[in-house]
Design brief:
The protein is mainly beta and about 1300 residues long. About 5% of the residues lie in helices and about 35% in strands.
């Protein structure tokens, strides 16, 4: 490790914030510095940076003179100059990233929408309105189109767009193409004109690994096609960001994004949020601000942009001034120029064969072909005395070819002492492909007697992206000196140099045949040895005592070295030592992070610790030309434990566009975990939970402020400490699995595989906990804050089993029309993850109890880890957990079983064998093609083969449940069964309490549909249910079971329900072809985020329940939601009665309720209700006639644009074989088929109403509801019925686990 630099005399360190690191001006050879905003340009700076790359940079040195000032406000007039709205800009002025017409109409169809005059708005296209001029130019059936996730019947690409994060947002997509030949889908931008040197293109793409063979982004300019980026994956899940720098492009060009599929890659990919930033050239101005340069084309550029090797004016006049003619530029096109003593560097041409990470173009010409620039000479190695010449050969640059263990060294000639002047070196570097690569710049002086040890002036380290980055150093020295550039290449990476520009005050020492005695000889050998670390360990390993610590054990929060050297530079720092805790700047723009000494007044002042002489990490000016925000990162860290947190002091003062944030970088994913809440101008302290993370991850501070804005604007951090991050250190809290979340999250912690997280929430509004109705619970809401990840994980630390069997109980809440799946799994080291329990779709606006038995191997001592997974299926709804408890002993049998996660404890006996199976492969020997739960081939069910070879005629196959707890009231057990077309035999249902009791026998012939069976159960002691399949001896026959449910109360008649205890067999499964939305179940007393009726119809109170659907979630991609009955037999005349409620404002009714009869012959709408009805229950009835088996479907849909308002149903009654009585049609009822009922006498009607009210009141007094209202919950003793809390420790009564 080379010594860290001390400030050279008389060269001061880079001025940072003014008087305290927040202001500062300064002059250079080109004049004073001012704001960087180009006059007249609508190229604003962004407010945030979201990039998939990992980059880092050393803090070892600072520029010796002031870099350009950074300003968030324009230096000149902003926007257009009052042109009429119907102006016609010339062709070269359209699509040039500058608004020449009022309203920016000349930039509206250019691959983006014209920017607004609001500062900070880039030229962007989100595809929400139209394709912005992007066109599909594919030559095969594999092509691009504008699409949205909810608009297609089959979701082939992303489930949401990137702009909105929902299934209602638009993007460009290419679907699957099932051809047998390789195909490429090509999306091309309109013709664009003139991109500035700072032009940057950002976009987001979505491509699951294995779907596409290759993605490619190309730029076509004249006859040359330049590959900006290409990748064959693998790509991570979700949307990925791509950022590329286009560089200076003259005249017309186009950008294309292509996806290639072959025989094995079917190819689904999407593109969204295309942004052009920093692409506009400055516009002509009559007068330039003070300190700016007036270009030949009348544009204005800042003085620091002169002679920097880039065409900032647009006509190259800023590179052809008298000052520039005295600079010496080396672009490596013809050699090394005045630079010599090259060791480990090689000239490389951009058009030749190269490493994948190598630059695809040089910086000098921004071209693969090396085409000379028009209007300006091609700068080669030239001095003021040598004429310029052009070369049309491929562009060249210098690339490090040294081994990672040795640096590549490039030495300048020896320069004369600069005296009072600055010798300035501007250079462009390229670090890409590895987080371990680095570029360092040293100064070596020759004082009388002997040369001095090289002093580090600049260090760039890590992944800086596939772009050429500008930097500059200014040197004042009283002695002759040399400049050394050394490059260390990381595995798979590249370090490159181009365009080394020396100012006129860098005067070489006259050449002498031999150096005078005592002076430094130019031979590189003795000097190079001092640049190599002397260490007996392998490269990348840390030496401490007799140990060599490998890189993967550095910063893993576990001490390997006795003195802890392996954990010293891992993020924790007060920034007093120069190493700065391992934080390294990774900025590529006009701001950077650097250590700054606190001053007595101004800005952060005394620093975070209060010491006036202390150091802190602060924003400073820099010489980069790309992304303006500054970034600083830790080394690779991890793995970390769930309690890992970062404490810090921070200072932030900026305008509304500024920010200071902390980001966790993991692979290609960036997760913001903290942002400074407001601009205060004072030091504050905060703590940020980092949580359990996999290795490697890095922490990154990112910030953007206007250092020249009003007030002491700036950003700084100090006293950063990482605490409790060891993944192996266990605390007492880690073993607390039982938790009501009132105090904290106990032993549970959120996983960080996606940006969606479980959060501990206090009861308020529509969200309430289960424990008391006013406490805390865990919530997963994909919209607050917006999250685009597929789901969230909630985990425990590894736990030691307390017994061979343990019962885990919990309460869950699944509510919303598009909520997804909640799963419980267990992990054991060395074993595959075991799924214990799962629920999908909405389960009503209600807390439900669930439990699962954990089985452990006796005596193994193996620990286990519990995991709740919330998997999103859309963007409307929430998941919640509360009151988790674990206790030794088995659980009772579950009241609900879908067989999706397991066999639910059912055991098979008898000669035949019941098996849990799925027909996902389509090759199942027997059984239904789909299950009932998901109605897909991937779903699971229980099935028994009834063929004679498996189960001879008259033999029995039994399926027996685990023990159920005693019932305190009558209950209804429902199940869905499927019989083969060929008569399989008989399905018998028995209830075993004291002895076996047959309660149901089913022997009807089967069909293609699942049918609902129900059994009334009364049991005062523990009991089991037994399903017996009695074989009929018929080949290729079977019996299948799915979706068992035990609910309180007697079983209702088929297709009839008052919805007090549940849905009574009505299915609300979301249909993808309709948008994937579900009807929900709620009550007026239950707080909800969706509008709903205040009372039900059955009871007429807020405690009663109903089903409802909020039509406001529907849009062009979601068309309807269905509520379906069980299959019903053919009928010549039956009556369907129901009560419905609509909640739309008068004269703004948009929803529609329809009744559909669905059968094998198709669908027939038999009733609909629209009109202007609101806030009252209305009766609907229709006579049903069907010649074949059918289902009744209630469809909630739209008759216009989306509008907030619920459609609700209650007291549905199907009277099989009974025609409807002829009642007066309710207002708003429209009979589309069947006869209209006649009028019944008013006395009879009054009698029926009284009977219904009496019956409803009796049910309310007698039944103990499975989901009490919030008011009922509050009336019960604090806590909940199966868990007793003592402080925050949870115990489980024996009644839940004791089978006796």
């Amino acid at each position: 490790m080379w010594p860290q630099p001390e400030p050279l005399q008389p060269v001061p360190p880079l001025p940072g914030l003014h008087q305290a690191g927040l202001g500062g001006g300064g002059h250079n050879d080109c004049g004073p510095t001012f704001g960087l905003k180009e006059p007249g340009s609508l190229d604003p700076r962004p407010q945030s940076r979201r990039t998939a790359s990992q980059v880092s940079l050393g803090l070892g040195g600072h520029p010796a003179s002031s870099p350009p000032a950074v300003s968030l406000s324009a230096a000149g007039p902003l926007g257009w100059t009052g042109a009429p709205s119907n102006c016609r800009a010339p062709r070269e002025a359209t699509c040039n990233f500058v608004c020449d017409c009022a309203g920016c109409s000349d930039e509206t169809r250019c691959g983006y929408h014209g920017a607004s005059p609001t500062l900070g708005a880039p030229f962007a296209c989100d595809f929400e309105r139209d394709p912005c001029g992007w066109q599909d130019v594919s030559t095969s059936g594999y092509s691009w189109l504008r699409d949205r996730a909810g608009a297609s019947l089959e979701v082939l690409g992303p489930r949401s767009d990137h702009t909105l994060g929902t299934d209602l947002g638009w993007y460009m997509a290419v679907g699957t193409h099932r051809g047998k030949e390789a195909s490429t889908a090509v999306l091309r931008s309109p013709v664009l004109h003139n991109a500035a040197p700072t032009c940057e293109l950002r976009l987001w793409f979505h491509a699951a690994s294995g779907d596409v063979a290759e993605l490619r982004l190309e730029l076509t300019h004249r006859a040359e096609t330049l590959t900006l980026w290409q990748s064959s994956g693998p790509w991570g899940p979700g949307w990925q960001e791509l950022v590329v720098a286009t560089g200076r492009i003259r005249d017309d060009f186009q950008v294309t994004f292509s996806a290639t599929r072959n025989v094995t890659h079917r190819g689904t990919v999407a593109l969204d949020d295309v942004v052009f930033r920093g692409c506009g050239l400055p516009t002509p101005q009559a007068h330039c601000p003070l300190g700016h340069h007036h270009c030949g084309n009348m544009a204005c550029v800042e003085s620091h942009q002169l002679c920097d090797g880039e065409d900032n004016c647009g006509d190259s006049s800023d590179e052809d001034t008298p000052i520039c003619r005295h600079h010496t530029t080396t672009d490596f096109e013809t050699g090394l120029g005045p630079w010599n003593h090259s060791e480990g560097w090689a000239r490389n041409r951009s058009a030749g064969a190269r490493h994948p990470a190598w630059p695809r173009r040089d910086h000098s010409r921004n071209s693969v072909q090396g085409e000379a620039r028009r209007g300006a000479p091609v700068l080669t190695s030239r001095s003021p005395a040598s004429p310029a010449h052009t070369c049309l050969c491929p562009g060249s640059f210098l690339v490090s070819t040294a081994e990672p263990s040795a640096p590549a060294v490039l030495s300048s000639p020896e320069f004369q002492a600069s005296g009072a002047h600055n010798c300035s070196l501007t250079f462009y570097h390229y670090l890409h492909g590895s987080v371990d690569g680095s570029l360092q710049l040293f100064l070596q002086t020759r004082s009388p007697g002997s040369p001095q040890v090289p002093v580090l002036l600049r260090r760039r380290h890590g992944e800086l992206g596939a772009a050429w980055v500008r930097d500059r150093v200014d040197i004042q020295s009283q002695h002759p000196f040399r400049i050394l550039l050394t490059g260390h290449t990381g595995p798979g990476g590249v370090v490159s140099l181009d365009d080394l520009i020396l100012s006129d005050h860098c005067q070489p020492v006259p050449d002498m045949s031999s150096p005078p005695p005592g002076l430094w000889a130019p031979a590189p050998g003795p000097q190079l040895s001092s640049l190599r670390p002397q260490d007996f360990c392998e490269p990348g390993h840390l030496s401490c005592g007799d140990l060599c610590v490998p890189p993967e054990q550095l910063c893993d929060f576990q001490h390997q070295c006795e003195a802890g050297e392996d954990e010293q530079e891992c993020g924790t720092s007060d920034f007093e030592p120069p190493a700065a805790g391992g934080w390294e700047d990774a900025s590529v723009g006009r701001l950077q992070w650097g250590r700054l000494q606190a001053q007595e007044s101004g800005g952060p002042g005394a620093g975070g610790s209060g010491a006036a002489a202390g150091h802190f990490l602060s924003l400073q000016r820099a010489w980069g030309q790309l992304t303006p925000e500054a970034r600083v990162l830790t080394p690779p860290l991890g793995p970390s434990g769930p309690r890992c947190k970062l404490r810090m002091a921070y200072y932030f003062h900026g305008d509304p566009q500024g920010f200071l944030a902390l980001v966790v970088v993991e692979g290609g994913r960036r997760e913001p975990v903290w942002q400074a809440p407001s601009s205060s101008g004072d030091w504050k302290a905060d703590t940020v939970l980092i949580g359990a993370r996999r290795r490697p991850f890095r922490l990154e501070f990112v910030s953007l402020v206007d250092l020249d804005g009003p007030g002491q604007q700036g950003a700084a951090v100090d006293d950063v400490t990482l605490e409790d991050c060891s993944p192996v250190t266990a605390t007492e809290k880690d073993s607390e699995v039982s938790c009501n979340f009132e105090r904290d999250t106990c032993g549970w912690h959120s996983g960080h595989l996606t940006d969606a997280h479980w959060r501990r929430i206090e009861s308020r509004g529509p969200g309430y906990d289960h424990t008391t109705g006013q406490g805390y619970y865990l919530l997963l809401d994909p919209t607050d804050p917006p999250a685009r990840g597929p789901g969230a994980h909630l985990l425990t630390q590894p736990q030691a089993p307390a017994a061979t069997q343990e019962c885990l109980s919990f309460w869950y809440h699944l509510h919303g029309p598009q909520i997804g799946t909640l799963r419980l799994a267990v992990r054991r080291e060395g074993e595959a993850e075991t799924l214990l329990w799962s629920r999908s779709g909405t389960h009503g606006n209600c807390w439900h109890k669930a439990w699962a038995t954990l089985h452990h191997q006796a005596g193994s001592g193996a620990k286990y880890q519990l995991l709740f997974q919330g998997l999103r299926d859309g963007y409307h709804g929430t998941m919640a957990l509360d009151d988790v408890a674990v206790r030794p002993g088995p659980c009772w049998a579950s009241r609900r079983c879908s067989f999706e996660d397991s066999a639910c404890g059912f055991s098979s006996s008898g000669q035949g064998l019941w098996t849990r199976q799925t027909n996902a492969t389509g090759h199942a020997s027997w059984g239904p093609r789909t299950d009932h739960t998901t109605e897909t081939a991937q779903g699971h069910y229980m099935v028994v083969d009834m063929s004679p070879h498996a189960l001879p005629r008259g033999h029995v196959a039994s399926l027996t449940s685990e023990e159920h707890q005693p019932l305190t009231q009558p209950a209804c057990l429902t199940f869905w069964y499927h019989l083969s077309l060929r008569n399989p035999g008989t399905l018998q249902v028995h209830v075993e309490e004291a002895g076996r009791q047959q309660v149901l026998s089913l022997s009807a012939h089967g069909g293609f549909a699942w049918r609902l069976g129900s059994v009334d159960v009364q049991a005062e002691r523990a009991w089991r249910v037994v399903f017996e399949a009695v074989a009929a001896g018929v080949e290729r026959s079977y019996i299948a079971l799915d979706d068992l449910l035990l609910q309180d109360g007697p079983c209702p008649r088929p297709a009839s329900c008052d919805f007090e205890a549940g849905l009574c067999g009505w299915s609300h499964l979301p249909w993808p072809s309709l948008g994937g939305f579900s009807w929900d179940w709620s009550s007026g007393a239950t707080p909800s985020r969706y509008p709903q009726p205040p009372v039900d119809h059955t009871l007429g109170t807020e405690a009663g329940h109903f089903v409802l659907f909020e039509t406001g979630v529907l849009g062009p991609g979601g068309r309807a939601a269905w509520l379906r009955s069980q299959p019903l037999p053919a009928t010549e005349s039956s009556c369907l009665r129901f009560w419905y409620h609509v909640g739309f404002p008068e004269h703004f009714y948009k929803g529609e309720l329809r009744v559909i009869l669905s059968s094998a012959q198709g669908q027939l709408a038999v009733w609909s209700a629209g009109a202007h009805r609101r806030h009252q229950w209305l009766e609907g009835h229709v006579e049903v006639v069907s010649a074949e088996e059918f289902q009744i479907v209630f469809e909630a849909t739209l008759s216009g644009q989306p509008a907030l308002g619920p459609i609700a149903l209650d007291d549905v009654e199907y009277l099989a074989g009974q025609p409807c009585q002829r009642l007066t049609s309710s207002q708003g009822d429209t009979a589309l088929a069947a006869s209209v009922p006649t009028i019944v006498g008013s006395a009879l009607l009054v009698l029926i109403v009284l009977v219904l009210i009496g019956l409803g009141g009796w049910r309310w007094l007698q039944k103990e509801r499975s989901c009490p209202s919030r008011a009922e919950t509050a009336a019960v003793a604090p806590g909940f019925d199966n868990i007793v809390f003592n402080a925050d420790h949870v115990t489980l009564p024996a009644s839940l686990t004791d089978p006796q």
